Each structure stands twice: as structure tokens, then as C-alpha cells.
């Protein structure tokens, strides 16, 4: 009896479980159907769908609706593709009256660009594991010849040329070190093979902001985003580290004369150190030389002219300044502020600045546009909407004749017309103070040559 009762209880329990699961399943199906109806994935059929005639009529209309929908979608896709193509073409066809060349070979994002000291080459690196060395005389003649260097299993982030123009250095992202590449020449004197020579033995574990080589060839500088500057010999041995006492760095530079290294950061000063060597070219020390301190907020960028007698700075305070740094700092002479300009009202965020080798031109890059000044005029030439994001690098050629602007995808090279106008004004001032007839004649010839060149560029 007890066994039979137990079996009945089990059977009843199983029936209850099956019924409960059936109810739950029906509820889930109904709930899922309501969700699909709400999302429009399936259509709800009304009583008219039971009418065979209406169903047949509906069936006969479905192919036409599908064709119409397909045709509409195709037209929309074609329109979107055409719009995308038009946007691409409009960007690739950027034009400007002073544009010399547009260099496009990188498939990745370009991270740096520099001219060689002799003005013959322009190098760029990107995260597509490539470095391109462009031959300037070729692209000035409407030919974009270049030599590609592949970086195996890594990519370069920053680069700079050696003072003898026979090599260049790059910082590597993954390896966290500095690599030296040697540039060979062919028998006819043209640029030949470029090969990796060696890596610096010590790592650069922090993000490198800038890298530079002294024109004397005695040392290499790396400036990091954290407040450290490192000085290396040309074989990669660390000579010294400078704690700049900045919270972070915004820019760092080796002066073209090779005497100084400098940095800007969170504070409102540019700090400058002299790197000294013995007569036998042995490293001695770094000494605090001077600082530029007239700004009231963070300095975004700065630059030297060719002989380091002038510097230019741009700050978050909305101004940029030109300085006379031809001083004897050992006698505690301070740099002299020559002039202050107000930045454009359209400026957004940080800016890049470069000063021409002759100290007469300043280019400022801000949020996809470039503004070119000469030191005698208040107004500027504008090159607007080069790119959507920020400009990566901006640099004058060593001859002062051209300005290269590097975006994430392309490099644009322009005639430095504003600088040429400043050069003419500078010559006219010099002729007034010329002491000899021969000197005046020589300056007159320079003025005539520059005026002829300017007339040809302004056509």
C-alpha cells in the first residue's frame, strides 16, 4: 500500500512539473513574440490574412515591394559611397596658392617629421612600421621620389638627422630604445641604401617627447613627458640626466648651435642648460644658463634660430613672444623680450611653434590650421583647415624658403612667402646702416633677387 501511494505521489509530482514547464514555455513564447512585434522584426497578422484572395494579392505584391526596397537601398548606398568618395577627393585635392608639394606614402598615422641640416632631405615616420626619406629637390620639381625604410616588428615615434647628414636616429615604440640608421650614397652621389646600424644599449622606458643631436656631434638629447632630460654620447652611453623640476614637459629642444638644451612644461618658463665638454671632447657638465619667464601660464612650444641668438615662445596665456638670447649668461645677463603678439582668437588648446633659421619667420600650428608671421608685421598668412585633428609637426627648411606641415596622413610643403617679405624688410633696414658702398651694392642685389622671387610667387 505504501509503495503504491509513493508511486502515485511521484506521478502527480511529475505531472505538476510537466504542466508547470508547459505553462512557462507558453509564457516565454508569448513574451518573445511580443518583443519581436514591438521591435518590428515580425508582423502581426489580422483577420484579413485568413482571406485567401487577400493573401494571394499580398503574395503577388511582396516581390514588387522587395524590389522597390532593394532599389531604394541601392540608391542610398550609392549616394553614401559617392558622398564618401567626394569627401576623399576634396581632402586629397587640398589646394593653396603657395603649396609646393603634398607628400603621401604612409598608410598609418605619421608621428614625426624633420629636415636634414643641409636641406636636401625630409624624413618622416609613422605607426605603419615605415620611415620615408624624401629628396627635396625632387618634390620641388613635381616629383615625389622617396626611399622607404621598414622597421621590423616595431615602429618609430620620433626622429632626427645627424649633423653630417649621413645618418638619422629614431626612437622605437616597442623596443623602447634609440636606433641609428646609416644613409649610403651611390656612385653618382644620389641617396642609396639606408640600413640599421645599431641600437643604443640602454632602454628609454618613458615616452620620448623629442629627440635631437647637437650640431657638434658630441651628444644626443632625449626629452621625456615626465620632467627628465637625458644626455647621451653618440654611441648610446648615458652621460647625465637633468631633473627639470617641471611637473611634466610640453616641449624640448637642442639648440642648432649645439651649446644648449631646453624644455618647457607646466610652469610659465622655458629653462635652458648649457652642455659643456673639454677640449678633448670629454663630457664635463650641464649648467643652468638662463630662462625665459615673461609668460603668465604654461608654455606650449618654443624654438631657436640657427645661431641661438633668438628664441620664440607660445603660451596658454594667449600670446607668443620673440626674444633676444644673444647674451652672456655667465655675467648674469637676462634675455631681452623683443616683441609680444596676441594669438588668434580662434585658437583652441595647445599649439606648436617653429622659428626659421634666420630668425625672421614664425609658424604657429593650432587645431588643423597654420599661421605664418614675420617679425616685422602684426598680421599673418593663414593656411586653414589642413586637417580635422591637430597638426603633428611644423618646421621651416634650413634655407628659410619653405615650410613643411605634417598632419597624421600627409605632409604639405609651402613657399614661405611671409618670411620672404620679412627678409626684404630686414635687408632694407640693413642697407640704411651699411657703412661701405660695396656693402650697400651687395644688399641691393639681394633685395632685387628677393623682389623678383616674391613677384613670381605672388602671381
UniProtKB/TrEMBL annotation:
The chain crosses the membrane at residues 12-32. It comes from Helobdella robusta (Californian leech). SUPFAM superfamilies: WD40 repeat-like. One of its GO terms (biological process) is endoplasmic reticulum unfolded protein response. It comes from the Eukaryota. Pfam families: WD40. The keyword Transmembrane applies. WD repeats lie at residues 103-134, 292-324. This is Uncharacterized protein. Residues 46-73 have a biased composition (Basic and acidic residues). GO terms for cellular component: endoplasmic reticulum. The lineage of its organism: Eukaryota, Metazoa, Spiralia, Lophotrochozoa, Annelida. Residues 46-88 are annotated as: Disordered. Keywords: Membrane, Transmembrane, Transmembrane helix, WD repeat.
Amino acid at each position: 500500500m505504501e509503495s503504491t501511494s509513493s508511486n502515485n505521489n511521484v506521478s502527480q509530482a511529475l505531472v505538476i512539473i510537466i504542466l508547470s514547464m508547459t505553462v512557462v514555455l507558453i509564457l516565454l513564447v508569448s513574451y518573445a513574440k511580443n518583443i519581436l512585434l514591438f521591435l518590428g522584426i515580425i508582423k502581426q497578422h489580422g483577420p484579413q490574412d485568413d482571406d485567401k484572395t487577400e493573401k494571394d494579392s499580398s503574395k503577388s505584391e511582396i516581390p514588387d515591394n522587395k524590389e522597390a526596397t532593394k532599389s531604394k537601398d541601392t540608391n542610398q548606398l550609392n549616394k553614401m559611397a559617392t558622398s564618401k568618395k567626394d569627401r576623399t577627393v576634396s581632402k586629397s585635392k587640398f589646394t593653396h596658392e603657395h603649396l609646393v608639394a603634398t607628400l603621401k606614402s604612409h598608410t598609418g598615422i605619421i608621428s614625426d617629421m624633420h629636415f636634414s641640416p643641409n636641406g636636401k632631405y625630409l624624413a618622416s615616420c609613422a605607426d605603419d612600421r615605415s620611415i620615408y626619406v624624401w629628396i627635396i629637390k625632387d618634390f620641388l620639381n613635381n616629383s615625389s621620389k622617396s626611399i622607404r625604410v621598414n622597421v621590423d616588428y616595431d615602429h618609430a615615434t620620433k626622429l632626427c638627422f645627424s649633423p653630417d647628414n649621413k645618418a638619422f636616429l629614431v626612437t622605437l615604440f616597442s623596443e623602447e630604445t634609440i636606433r641609428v640608421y646609416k644613409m649610403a650614397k651611390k656612385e653618382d652621389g644620389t641617396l642609396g641604401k639606408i640600413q640599421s646600424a645599431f641600437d643604443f644599449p640602454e632602454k628609454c622606458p618613458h615616452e620620448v617627447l623629442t629627440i635631437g643631436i647637437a650640431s657638434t656631434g658630441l651628444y644626443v638629447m632625449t626629452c621625456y613627458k615626465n620632467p627628465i632630460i637625458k644626455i647621451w654620447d653618440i654611441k648610446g652611453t648615458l652621460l647625465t640626466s637633468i631633473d627639470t623640476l617641471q611637473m611634466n614637459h610640453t616641449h624640448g629642444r637642442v639648440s642648432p648651435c649645439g651649446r644648449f638644451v631646453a624644455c618647457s612644461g607646466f610652469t610659465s618658463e622655458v629653462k635652458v642648460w648649457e652642455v659643456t665638454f673639454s677640449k678633448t671632447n670629454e663630457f664635463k657638465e650641464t649648467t643652468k644658463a638662463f630662462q625665459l619667464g615673461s609668460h603668465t601660464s604654461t608654455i606650449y612650444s618654443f624654438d631657436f634660430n640657427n645661431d641661438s641668438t633668438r628664441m620664440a615662445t607660445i603660451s596658454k596665456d594667449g600670446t607668443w613672444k620673440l626674444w633676444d638670447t644673444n647674451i652672456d649668461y655667465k655675467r648674469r645677463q637676462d634675455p631681452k623680450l623683443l616683441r609680444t603678439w596676441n594669438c588668434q582668437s580662434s585658437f583652441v588648446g595647445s599649439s606648436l611653434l617653429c622659428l626659421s633659421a634666420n630668425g625672421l619667420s614664425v609658424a604657429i600650428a593650432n587645431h588643423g590650421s597654420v599661421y605664418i608671421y614675420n617679425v616685422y608685421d602684426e598680421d599673418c598668412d593663414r593656411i586653414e583647415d589642413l586637417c580635422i585633428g591637430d597638426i603633428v609637426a611644423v618646421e621651416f627648411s634650413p634655407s628659410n624658403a619653405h615650410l613643411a606641415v605634417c598632419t597624421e596622413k600627409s605632409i604639405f610643403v609651402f613657399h614661405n612667402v611671409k618670411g620672404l617679405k620679412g627678409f626684404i624688410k630686414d635687408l632694407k633696414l640693413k642697407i640704411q646702416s651699411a657703412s661701405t658702398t660695396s656693402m650697400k651694392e651687395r644688399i641691393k642685389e639681394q633685395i632685387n633677387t628677393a623682389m623678383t622671387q616674391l613677384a613670381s610667387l605672388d602671381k
